[in-house]
Design brief:
Length: 492
């Protein structure tokens, strides 16, 4: 009964948000509450929710202060050199913009934190997507999938969990997987290229106004107007015209794209500065929040913060809390400026924190009622006896749906030991099982149970349902590429 209710609850949630019948926050709260009553455990709902909130509160705190910290670092110009390099590569070509999104997300993912990756990637690329009239779900899908592959780094979480659950060395799990993960990342870049070509065909040939030759046009960026004091300034992005596909842009975005008329009007060369709807704002060389004289201080603090995070010198929420306080105090010593910076990022903080605490209801009910355990036991029990010698392959395939519908903690500490025990009975090494368990991470990063994904869709102003519909198929395909490469190379 609990197995059926667990799958039904997840399916109901996904259907309602993808059909836009409910907002993610409402669905994360009301649907599990309803199914908790169906399970006959409504009297314990409060306990389940408090338990879920208690477990996710550190994550919410980490995301809140990480948004403030990296928001300030973006404001003061720490990431401008990286962003300028990516934008120089992108020029005004939709294909290069999408590939640049994948490259930027992969590079920033080296810090092992998904929320950081999404904040920097979206801050850099969002105005360019809006300016060129590109589909924003392409941006979120490519960024999430690239980050999912990179999330397997030993300090990213899943590898450490697998090593802990099976009492193995993280390096023994991760290092042999590098060729397979490299193939997965290469597939993401190829996917970005294909999606970029589709966007180029849909939007048309883009040229900057006032230029005769396309090559020369692509080299010039029209700078955005300086923002008013106390607010972030827009990223400078090219104003463009679209000759062959003007009608396509004017008629709206392609399927699954949430970009609206402002994107279409931008594609017709409307205005030199990003509009307020463009949201944020990062590369304008004249924005008043820049602190070039503190560049190396900010870089040093960020490196020290990431190093302390990797070495686990302090809990991550504490590190970001200290980092945010230090960054605000040094870069904006005057109280009104500090308040302005906090206010500038308050919308993202509230949106993400609200999503996390709403997700706490969902995970609390799933775990507290025993639905997760019953679902895992049912899936493991459904494995045919003849598949025993192929448990590594089975683990890789199961990692796709299980890490999507469950938290990483639930999968790696609850399900993986059972799979490893079943594999050991048929002579399959726990190392192979552990490596196969990493396969589903490309899909996991778009799970509604991953707090960082709400940073991504929130900052990109994309509906979670639109992101899910577009991304799931490509992320699942990326995971299967990693699995196939692992088997081909004899790693799994």
């Amino acid at each position: 009964m609990l197995t059926f209710l667990g799958f039904a609850m997840i399916a109901t949630f996904l259907v309602l948000i993808m059909m836009k019948k409910m907002s993610p926050i409402a669905a994360l709260v009301l649907i599990p509450a309803l199914f908790c009553v169906f399970a006959g455990k409504g009297a314990h709902l409060g306990d389940y929710v408090i338990d879920g909130v208690g477990k996710l509160a550190p994550t919410a705190a980490m995301l809140m202060f990480a948004i403030v910290y990296f928001g300030v670092m973006i404001d003061v110009g720490l990431f401008d050199p990286i962003v300028r390099g990516i934008l120089r590569f992108c020029k005004a070509d939709p294909m290069r913009v999408v590939v640049g999104t994948a490259v930027l997300a992969a590079i920033v993912s080296l810090d092992g934190d998904g929320s950081t990756t999404f904040m920097i990637t979206v801050s850099a690329m969002y105005p360019l997507y809006k300016r060129l009239g590109l589909s924003l779900v392409v941006m979120t899908g490519v960024a999430a999938t690239a980050n999912g592959v990179m999330n397997t780094l030993p300090w990213g979480g899943p590898t450490a969990r697998a090593a802990t659950a099976l009492k193995l060395d993280a390096a023994d799990i991760f290092v042999p997987m590098i060729p397979a993960l490299a193939m997965g990342l290469l597939f993401v870049f190829v996917l970005a290229y294909v999606l970029g070509v589709k966007e180029r065909r849909r939007v048309g040939t883009l040229v900057l106004p006032g230029q005769v030759e396309r090559e020369a046009a692509e080299e010039e960026l029209v700078p955005a107007a300086p923002a008013a004091s106390g607010a972030s300034a827009p990223v400078s992005a090219p104003a463009v015209t679209s000759a062959p596909a003007a009608s396509a842009s004017a008629s709206g975005e392609g399927a699954g794209s949430p970009a609206g008329p402002d994107a279409a009007s931008a594609a017709h060369g409307g205005g030199d500065a990003a509009t307020p709807e463009d949201g944020f704002q990062g590369l304008d060389p004249h924005r008043p929040t820049l602190r070039p004289h503190l560049y190396w201080f900010n870089a040093g603090v960020t490196v020290a913060l990431l190093t302390a995070m990797i070495m686990e010198l302090l809990p991550i929420p504490v590190l970001f809390l200290l980092g945010a306080a230090l960054a605000l105090t040094v870069n904006f010593p005057h109280m009104p400026d500090q308040k302005a910076r906090i206010a500038a990022h308050a919308d993202n903080v509230l949106n993400v924190a609200g999503m996390v605490f709403a997700a706490a209801v969902f995970t609390g009910v799933l775990t507290g009622t025993g639905m997760v355990k019953h679902m895992a036991d049912w899936l493991v029990g459904a494995i045919p006896e003849g598949m025993g010698p192929h448990m590594a392959l089975v683990t890789g395939l199961l990692s796709l749906p299980l890490t999507y519908f469950m938290s990483n903690d639930g999968f790696y500490f609850g399900v993986l030991p059972v799979l490893a025990e079943a594999g050991a009975a048929h002579g399959v090494s726990p190392l192979e099982i552990a490596r196969a368990s990493l396969v589903g991470q490309a899909l996991h990063m778009s799970s509604p149970l991953v707090p960082a994904v709400y940073v991504l869709v929130g900052m990109a102003k994309v509906e979670f349902g639109d992101h899910t519909r577009f991304t799931v198929k490509w992320a699942a395909l990326t995971s299967l590429v990693v699995l196939a490469a692992g088997m081909l190379f004899g790693i799994i």
